[in-house]
Amino acid sequence: MPQLSDIEVARRIRTGTIDNLYFFYGHDVASVEAYTKRLITKVVPNEVQDMNLHIFEGKSLDLGELSDVCEGLPMFSERTCITINDLDIEGLKKDDMTYLKDILSDLPDTTAVIIYSTGINVYKSKTRLLDKTGRFAAFCAKNGVACEFKFKSQSDLAKIIMVKVEKQGSSISKSSAVYLAQKTLCDMLIINNEVAKLCAYANGREITNDDIDLLCSTQVETDSFRLADAIAKGDAKRSFSILDRLYSDQLDTVTIVGGISSSFVDLYRARLARDSKRTYKNAADDFSYPKNLEFKIQNAYRDCSGYKTDRLRKCIQYLSEADLDLKSSKTDSRIILEKTITKMLMR
Predict the structure, then answer these.
(1) Which of 111, 148, 271, 333 makes an SS bond possible with 304, Cβ 3.0 to 4.6 Å?
(2) What is the C-alpha separation between 161 and 128, in angstroms, rounded?
(3) How many Å apart are CA 284 and CA 186, to the nearest integer?
(4) How high is the pLDDT of residue 224?
């Protein structure tokens, strides 16, 4: 079987098409974990997992024990499910790799093995797998299923959101779906939770931006960009209003400063791209923005045209000084941040 997309894997899971071997990996770790959990439940129902679900950690994998478990018969269930998390394929010796492939290429029909990577690096470049890992992915695709979970763009996620909302009996416009994707930083797990909440609240009617603002928690990066934008425009009232909202969410000052600094760096990079006659896509590639966060540099590129490069640079300097003060001074952290914002507004 060739390498499958996450959409095709979801369809196979939904229809109960179970394979003997799976290899899940990718930059979108949240989706890797979500699909693994969904697949486990499909292979082995919750009520019989105590007897038929066997969990291995890749760093301490005993291949002899794995072989024995793979050959074991399920109890009160159609299948046995075996998971292996963060298997260091690059670190496996040649003999161990041969033994592992022998085990996985001759699995009983009643056994499903899920190998998934969430905490180790499997890439040698942005899109290319490490050598051994790439060959192992090809082996898994030949003997079962291999799936790479890539970050989705906000446009892709907007389409998914619209379908999910429709299935739950409500509706949402494309612009509002994009707004929700941005508000959740394109995190699929957060999106799933927020869609369920919004559909329950809307109760069959169309979901609006006001509903999203009312019910969905904003990620710190989203409000941080709004705060950076307000500061860059010299809007003191809006700046301190957003700062109050961030503190009302019980965020600590170091986290807020980190968020604002990241947003100013986005604006600075976008300003430099504009000055160099380059597009936001060029900037996203140059600074290795993940696909799901490209909207950050896109929004910065859209909004930075009226900002002076030296002013953005000076604001980043002030924020760096504030970060140092927060970690070395006994002054109240909020006072440090408010003084820093005032300096940036005066600039």
Answers:
(1) 271
(2) 29
(3) 16
(4) 85
Average pLDDT over every residue of 148-175: 90
Type of residue at 21: L
How distant, in Å, are the alpha carbons of 182, 222, 270, 334, 340 from that of 300?
A: 13, 12, 6, 26, 21
Amino acid at 157: L
Of 291 and 295, the structure prediction assigns the larger pLDDT to: 295
Assess whether pLDDT exceeds 80 at residue 220: no
CA atoms within 13 A on the CB side of 216: 31
The answer on pLDDT for 189 being more than 80 is no
Model confidence, pTM: 0.61
Q: Phi and psi of 204, rounded to 5°?
A: 100, -15
Q: Which domains does the chain have, with CATH numbers?
A: 6-148 (3.40.50.300), 154-215 (1.10.8.60), 220-346 (1.20.272.10)
